[in-house]
Design brief:
Layout (H helix, E strand, L loop, with lengths): L2 E4 L3 E7 L2 E8 L1 H9 L5 E7 L5 H9 L3 E7 L5 E6 L8 E6 L19 E4 L4 H8 L7 E4 L3 H6 L1 H8 L4 E5 H8 L4 H10 L4 E5 L5 E4 L4 E4 L13 H16 L4 H18 L6 H4 L3 H15 L3 H5 L1
Parallel strand pairs: 1-4, 1-8, 2-6, 4-5, 8-9, 9-10, 10-11
Antiparallel strand pairs: 2-3, 6-7, 11-12, 12-13
Helix pairs in contact: 1-8, 3-5, 6-7, 8-9, 9-11
Bound molecules: adenosine monophosphate (AMP).
Length: 306
């Protein structure tokens, strides 16, 4: 079952303790759609500028991503610059240039209006709502956002959240959005804004899901090499929603499996800059890490193995 995603397509300039890259392919919608494309079909809605090279379009196309909704605007592509210290859990934004996104008003291609799974990736909440209001009857609406929009466009964001089923955001952003330091209390406040399910991304500490019936905790896959955390959150979301759409099952048990698939996808992205690790990833590697994640958190299985 196909997914519709709206979000940023970007040129990222990133500095980590391990290196620096300038104007590489990034953006929330790029990471999300590439990750989700390992599980199901994805259609992308975004805008790029006149400076966006054909080779990036060819890459997205090679992943089978639907590009009918990828517009080319007059002007420059969205740009983001960020920096990480040794604590890779926190991105410090150095620069955000919305450029062609400033006045992007998408008109969804007809075939996209019946999407059953919608992901509102991190972008202006007004644009998220504009896209969502053109979709007729989605089964699942999931959403991401960040501090930039929580502080800059809070009212618009709250309007969007009222129509969202599942919100996927970072731990610090849950606290900021709820204006409450305790995470459990903050989760209850944020769920009160609309989303029935809240998925809290906690960087190297994994993910916490506050669901309708239970709380679920998944670790991050323990990696020796974490090179660049950019895109980990969006790649997580791509695996999460991708698995849900592929299996067409939204019960809480399946949400838990989807969280582990999302965590596995994120664990690959952080091994290299930009989308580079996802370019040569094979589905067998995803399955292999999924089984390792099972072993990592199992309480009884080792007895059977010994
Ligand atoms: P994450 O998965 O949270 O690491 O997201 C990283 C991606 O978010 C980068 O590739 C950026 O291009 C993109 N990004 C950063 N700031 C914004 C913003 N204000 N709106 C939309 N996308 C952004």
């Amino acid at each position: 079952m196909s997914i519709l995603v709206v979000g940023s397509v970007a040129f990222d300039s990133i500095t980590t303790p391990f290196g620096h890259v300038d104007e590489v392919l990034g953006g929330s919608a790029c990471y999300f759609s590439t990750s989700a494309s390992f599980f199901t079909d994805v259609n992308l809605v975004a805008v790029v500028g006149e400076d966006f090279p054909q080779r990036h379009i060819d890459f997205l196309d090679s992943r089978g991503i639907g590009l009918e909704g990828l517009m080319r605007g007059a002007g420059r592509t969205f740009r983001w610059a960020g920096q990480y210290e040794y604590d890779l859990n926190e991105a410090h934004t150095l620069d955000t240039q919305l450029n062609v996104f400033e006045d992007f008003k998408p008109d969804l291609p007809k075939g996209y209006r019946d999407a059953e799974y919608v992901f509102l990736a991190n972008i202006d909440p007004e644009l998220q709502l504009d896209v969502l209001s053109q979709v007729r009857n989605p089964r699942l609406v999931a959403c991401d956002t960040m501090n930039f929009w929580i502080s800059g466009k809070r009212d618009a964001l709250l309007k969007t959240l009222a129509r969202v089923d599942t919100l996927v955001i970072n731990e610090a952003e849950v606290r900021q959005l709820a204006e409450e330091p305790n995470l459990v209390k903050a989760a209850a406040i944020v769920r009160g804004f609309g989303p029935q399910t809240l998925v809290v991304k906690r960087g190297e500490y994994g993910v916490l899901m506050f669901g309708e019936h239970s709380i679920f905790s998944a670790p991050a896959y323990p990696l020796e090499e974490v090179f660049d955390p950019t895109g980990a959150g969006d790649t997580f979301a791509g695996g999460f929603v991708g698995y849900l759409a592929a299996t067409r099952n939204l019960n809480e048990n399946n949400l838990r499996k989807a969280i582990v698939f999302g965590s596995v996808m994120a664990s690959f992205t952080v091994e290299k800059f930009s989308l580079d690790r996802l370019r040569d990833l094979q589905y067998g590697e995803i399955e292999d890490r999924f089984h390792k994640m099972k072993l990592l958190t199992d309480f009884g299985l080792l007895d059977d193995l010994q």
